[in-house]
Amino acid sequence: MVFLHEGLGSLSMWKDFPQQLVDALGWRGLVYSRPGYGRSTPRDAEEAWQLDFMHRQAHEVLPALLRALGIVADQTPPWLFGHSDGGSIALLYAARFHRQTAGLVVLAPHILVEDMGLRSIEATRQAYLDTDLRDKLARHHDDPDSAFWGWNRIWLHPPFREWSIEGEIGAIECPVLAVQGLDDQYGTLEQIRGIARRVPQTRLLELADCGHSPHRDQPEALIAAVGSFAKLL
């Protein structure tokens, strides 16, 4: 199972959840920080992410990483576990690479841009400028400005309002477990219900008392649901 972190995440920000999950499943896990995050190579100061930044992670970076690690996805296709932006990357990978994907678990993925999500991202920008959020992110990123502004500026870039992968995800052939908290401040339930309408082999999990990070807010319920889902296949 390959873990794909959120838009401000990193390897360390998962804490011990990946280990808990793969121990429960009896599987192996791969956790990494994408370029610009964690201890990976920071984004150049002049580099602005483009509208296709998640597509490039799915279609170029992740396949290159698997090859570099000697993982032959044609022979042993991985499961992908993606959170937020990482969930969108997982969906895009599976839509392109059918035989190289065994299954997906996506938490709070984005398939389109919603106004309420943008308002939350604007509030996060203000928090980065006015509070200790930068110091908190510095515990997990060698260059917190690289991680934060790369993510924040592209999401608030006006043309990004039209971003959508709704037309692409219908090509997904593997099983999908799509999870969202009922109190998610970055997306409505339309994000996962839209997946289910286009990918009929999707199971939905809508969690009460849960925000944007089900693996932090409801870890036990999530691990149980993933285990049940995997056993059915």
From TrEMBL:
**Does the keyword section mention Ribosomal protein?**
no
Which is one GO molecular function term here?
hydrolase activity
AB hydrolase-1 domain residues: 2-225
Which keywords describe this protein according to UniProt?
A: Hydrolase
Alphabetical list of InterPro entries matching this protein: AB_hydrolase_1, AB_hydrolase_fold, AB_hydrolase_sf
Name listed for the protein in its UniProt record: Alpha/beta hydrolase
Can you name the source organism?
Pseudaquabacterium terrae
State the taxonomy lineage.
Answer: Bacteria, Pseudomonadati, Pseudomonadota, Betaproteobacteria, Burkholderiales
